[in-house]
Each structure stands twice: as C-alpha cells, then as structure tokens.
What we know:
Helix content of chain A: over 70%
Oligomer: heterodimer
Strand order of the largest sheet of chain A: 1-2
Number of strands of chain B: 10
Helix content of chain B: 40-55%
Distance between the termini of chain A: 37 Å
Largest interface: A-B, 46 and 63 residues
Amino acid sequence: MTDRRPGFTDEPAARPVAEREAAPRLPGLLEEEGRGGPVAPAWAPAELSVPGAGWGTLSLAAAGAAVLLGAWAGFGLAGLVAAQFAASAVLGWLSLGVVGAGAGLVAAAFWREWRGLASLKRVDRLRALLADPASPLDQTRSEALAWVRGVAARVSEAGRIIPAIEAAGSVSEIAAHLAGGVSLALAAESARLGRRAAVEGGAVVALVPSPSLDAVVAGWRGLRVVREVAALHGFRPGLAATAKLLRRTVSIAATTAGADLLAQTTAESLVGATPVVRQLAASVPGAGIAAFRLYRLAIATAAACSPLPPR
Amino acid sequence: MLPTDPVAWLRSLLETGIRTADDTLNETVIRLAVTGLSRAGKTVFIVSMLANLLAMGRRVDTLPALARRIGDGARLRSVTRAPSGSSTVPHFDLDAKLEALAGREPSWPDRTADLSRIALTLTLDRSHALGRLAGPRRVTLEVLDYPGEWLLDLPMLGQDYADWSRETMASLSHPLRAAEAAPFLTWLSGVRGSDPGDESVARRGYTLYREALHRLREHGLRWLQPGRALNPGPRGEAPVLFFFPLPDASDRALPGTLAALLADRHAAYLDDMRREAFRGRLDRFDRQIVLVDVLGALHAGEAAFDDTARAIGAIARALRRDGLLARLLGQAQPTHLGFAATKADHVPATMRPALASLLRDLLGDAAKGEGRSVHAVASLRATEDVRVMRDGRSVEAVSGIPLGAEKRRSFDPGHVPATRPGASYWAAPPFLFEGFRPPLIDLHARNGIPHIGLDTLLADVLGDALA
C-alpha cells in the first residue's frame, strides 16, 4: 500500500509523481466546488425511552399481600406438619411428604419462571452487545453462541453458523452471521406460525356465537402464538416472562409500526389468499381482522425475541 | 439541656436520620479527571460531555452507548447542574463557553488559564425492582478543567532541582530543541552554578528559557517544564517562577550561589503547585480520561510524536495510585482509565480505527489492563466525510472551514498508520494545521452537540457507575 501524508488536497505535491508513489502520501487541502457555507454535521439524536413509573401503590400492595400470603401458608403448613408429628410419626412423615411435594411443585414453577425471565435478559444483553461494534468480542461471541445453540434445537439450520461465529473477528461479523444464518430461517418459521394462528384464530372467532367473546378467543390464541414464537426462539416463557414479552412486543410494534409492519403487506397478502381466511373474511368480517392481527402479533413477537435490532 | 419542643425536636431528629440514610444509600460522587496536554481539547471535551449529558436529561439520545448502559435511558430520571457549594475552585462557565461555540462567529475556547470546576447530578432508577424501594440514586459527576501545561509539572514533583536540571539539559541536547533554544544555551554557556546568586541573572536566564519553551511549543513539542512558564495562570509571573536548568547543578549547592537561588525557587515552585493546584484536586479522582492529539503529533514530525508519547506516559504514571497497597485497600486510582485520540473528525470514518490503534501503540503498556480503553473521539464534530480527487486518485477526506479561512476546503490527512510509522514517514517536513472552525450548533445545545465516539468513551469510563 502507498502511504499518504496529511495535507490540504488542493495544494500541489512537492515531489514528482514517481517519488510520491513510493513515499508516504502527504496531507493536502482541496478547494471545493458545489459545497459551500458553514458546516452543519448530520445530527438527529433519537428520543430516549421514558423512565418507568417504578413500583406503584397497587404493586406494593400486591407484593405485600403475596409476602403475607406466603408467610401465612408457610407457617400454617409448618404448624400442620408439627401437629401431625405430635400425633404420630407416620402421619408426620406423610404430611411432610405431601407438603414437600406441593412446595416442590411451586418451587419448580418459580424456577421455570426465573429461567424464562433469565433467557429474556440474555437476549437483551446480546442485543445490546450486537448494537455496539465496540462491544467486547469474546463476550459477544459467547453470548451469541449460547443463543444460537438454544435456537438450533428447534431450527436445525441455525447450527451451521456456529463455526463461523467461533471464527468471527468482529462484533459486526457476528451480527452479519446471525442476520444471514438464523434470522431469515426464524422469520420464515415465525411467519408460518403466524399464518397457522391466523387460520385457527379466525376460524374460532367465526364459530363463537357471541361477538362479545371475540376478544377473549383472539386473546387466548394470541397468547398461544406469542408462546409458540418464543419457544421457536429458544425460550420457555412462563407467566411473568410471557407478560414481559408481550410488553416488549407492544413496544416493538409501536416503534416499527410505520415501516416494518407496512413492509409485511406482501406477506399478509399470502394470509389473505389462504382459502379458509378468505372465506372467513367474506362471511364474518371480525374473523378476518382477528386473523390478520394474530399474524402481525407473531411477526412482532419474533422481532421482540430476536437479538438483532428491528429492521 | 432538654429541648423546649419535644415534638419538633423528634421531627427534626427523624428528618435528619432519613436524610442521612438517603444520602448514604443513594448519593454517589464520581470525580472525573479529564487530563491531557495543552491544545488536546480538554475544555471542548468537557463542554460537549456536559451539554450532551444535560440533553440526555431532556430525553434526547445524544450518547447512545452510554444510554444503553442505563436501560436505553429509561432509568435516567434527570440530569441537573449540581450546586457549587462552598468550593474554593472557580466555577467552569459552561454557558459562556457554549455561547462562544454557538455564536454568529463560532470560535473554540481560549487557552485555559486557571483551574475551574463543575458538577452534574444524574438521578437514576436502580436496575432491580427491589432496589427501587430505596428510591432513585443520585450520581454527582465532578469535573475539573485546568491548563494542560500545568500537568507536566506533575512529573517534576518527584525530582529535586539537580535531577530536573540534568534531565532538562539532556533533552535540550536534541537537535530540534537545541536549535530553538540556541539563544538560551549560548547565554548559559557563560554562566556557572557557583556564580553569585544575582536576581538579574536569574531573571535573564528565565526569560531566555521561557522564550525557548514558547518556540518549542510552536513546533508541536509538549514536554515543556515548568508548565507555568508557558501558562502562568491568573496570578501572573511571580518571582518563584524565575528559575531555569543549569548544566552543572549539584545536589548540594553552596548558599549564596546562583545554583542555590535557583534550587530554592524550584522547591518553592513545587510547594506552591502542590498546595494550590494539585492537593485535593488532581490527586483525588476515581476515573480518568486522557486526551491526546495524536494526529497533530503525527503530523508535527518524529520529535513531536516522541515528545508527546513521553509526556503522556509520564503524566499517566504520575497520576496513578494503583500500587499493591492501594489495591489491597481498595483505594486504587483510577478505577477506569480511558485514553482518547482527539480530533477524530480530522480523519474520515475509515481511518478512525487506525487513529485509535496508533494511540494504543504510542501508549504501550499504559493502555493495557482491566478498566482501560482506547478510543478515537471528536468532542465537537466540525467536518463532514467526503470523497475527493487528489493527484488523479479518488481519496477519502473530510470537509470543513479551516481556521482563519472563509471557504470550505477538503482535508486529506494522508496515511494514518496503525502503529508508529517507520523512517520513510518522518522524512517529509512537518505539517502544522490549526484545525477547522466549529460547526453551526444550537445556542443552548438543547439537542446536544454533534460528536464522534464520545458515548463509547463515557460508557467505558463511567458506564459501570451508572448501570
């Protein structure tokens, strides 16, 4: 490579061309034609997220009530077991086993919730790492590999990019592999789940005898499609994780509604062309709308589950 | 004595207790030292950092990488100027500096002549739901601005007059320094340390030495001591400054001789700097940002480049408090240290990684280790990237209005090497460029100030304290 030296580009170089080619390039200043006036660099910062309201009165009351309820149940059950032991050892062990099994199931549910929330946090972390090319490469690589391995259990195509991520030399390269190797397959599969939810949801809405139940039915199918798409992305969302995911989906839908959802028009024409949906839309207008909304929900959920920033 | 109104007394006691608990739980003070040699861009850096943080408080995403560390900014409640309290350090006049930058004829801040201080308070929600019960955190960020020339007095604090004289005379033997300091060196050849300690001789020697330092600064050299000879500050030139190096300075000068007079002044100067400029100020900080005009040093030639490397290394060493004992006691300073190659807007985007890499190479081991990072930064972006034809070739350049000019010109910074260049690079004459005029910005900087890389630098240096 030929070295260059700094300088203004309109000032003639001091040395002959042949010598210049062999030596470092000098700096230079150049008069500009067509560009004039003061410099005003492009600067249009976005808006920051709004601060959360924090713990509201109801949340605090609910948390307090949950603590009291848990303590009441715990002490009550401990008292019950102690009383049974006082009556007879057999009854004591029996009651301890029953209480232990119940507590174990509750703990398993909490554990599952915690894992669901933790997996969402992992994706948030990976998204933040991928958004900044200056993120630590090793940390980004290990987070990306963990996510891809989770996804590969459902989408086998994802596994093929693991060696590429292991060998990637920059954060941007990892993001490019994820976008090309996993995102497209996940988007296609999410769209398939969305179409299925659209057909099923639309059909059930059409069958519901009362229009007032439309929202309940669509909401139930909506929850299912959110969980299906989340499972496709490697999550096992429980109640809390699903609620968090729904909040994020709403946020994604709000921030990308203008461009991204409009870009889905072509894909939605496929949904509209599905014979069942077309017939439903013709006979029961609400069913057609429910079908489209369920499809869009699937797409927005896929964006919320992806570690790559929404397009 | 019992209180006359027990209810009021109890209420006051309770309020004090709550306030103390709140301060203990929620109040954090971060002392950020923004350091750098003269003309590295410290004052503009501080203005841009403060203006962009204040704009973040207005919910404008001016520092995206930092915002990501605080939940995309969702945990940031407000950013306000902290009251000055009873500080004895002059206030950093942010508004006046913004006004100068955003005026009809925008201009860069004048050379900093004195210490000044400013603090911002960032109010942040905690990241965990349970932690939020304790209320929002208040992180006060204290920043100190000071003349970059004074920073080079830091390494002097560990030397006596004889050591300093020997080191300074050795560096004056370098051809460039010797040429510029010729009048002083010629005069000095007729002076001995054993001569009588005459005031007029000391004054004459100091004047010649100071003139030599000024000429060397114009050549891009930075290792110039004492700093107050170049920038005496608001108190002006006091007699304590009137000393200069002697080639035959001895460890034990006889009383009444010129060497003894100069040694006394040297010691008094260091005492004064310790007391007035450094104690409780530059020796107490948690995080540090070191700004280096590495591009200017590169273009100024090999001597200036090496001089900058030497100066930055010495300053970084002088400011570090990370010995084994400090680390064991958890008192190591700074916990986070960010190095930044300034004026990144003088090179097109594709060359900025090389600029950061060049600084990393220049710093060597000083840039390695936990909590250290190297960046390329423009505190206030004054150019736009363009592609121009030069000598029949299409090259990437930047476009701006050079200082003192009226029209835009494209600037090609030439080849920016990722490591210290070889001999062929230094064969060309130095290229001294004053820089570009500031761009047009909003007077109140409500939407912040356009910058390059400021957010990633602040995220690395401050991010963990705000997360």
